[in-house]
Amino acid sequence: MNKIAKAIVDLSFFLDESKNYNRIKKFLKSVLEDSNHKYSKYFNYLMIFLIVSSVIIIIDEVKHPIEKWLIFYDIYIVTGIFIIEYILRLWVYSDIHKVIIQEFQDSVFLERKFNIFMVTKSIIMQKVQYISSPLAIIDIFAILPSFRELRILRIFVLFRAFKLFRYSSQINHFSEVIVSKKSELFMLLLLFIFVVFLSGVSIYVFEEHKNPNINTIYDAFYWAIITITTVGYGDIVPVTSEGRTVAAIIILIGVGLVSFATSIMVSAFREKSDELKAQKVKNIVDSFTNYYLICGYSHLSEILAAKLKRAGEHFIILDNDEKKVEQATRDGNLAYKADASSKNALIDFDINKKVLAVITLAQDDIQNIFISLSVRSVSKDIMLISRMRNKNSYKKLKLAGVDKVVSAANMTSMLVSTLVDKPIVTNAINSILSGKRNARCEQVEVVHGCMLEGKSIKDLNIEAYKLILLGISKNIDFKKRKFIFNPNDDFVFLEGDILIVLGYTISIANFKSIVEKSSIKYARKNR
Question: What pTM was estimated for this model as a whole?
Answer without folding.
Answer: 0.48
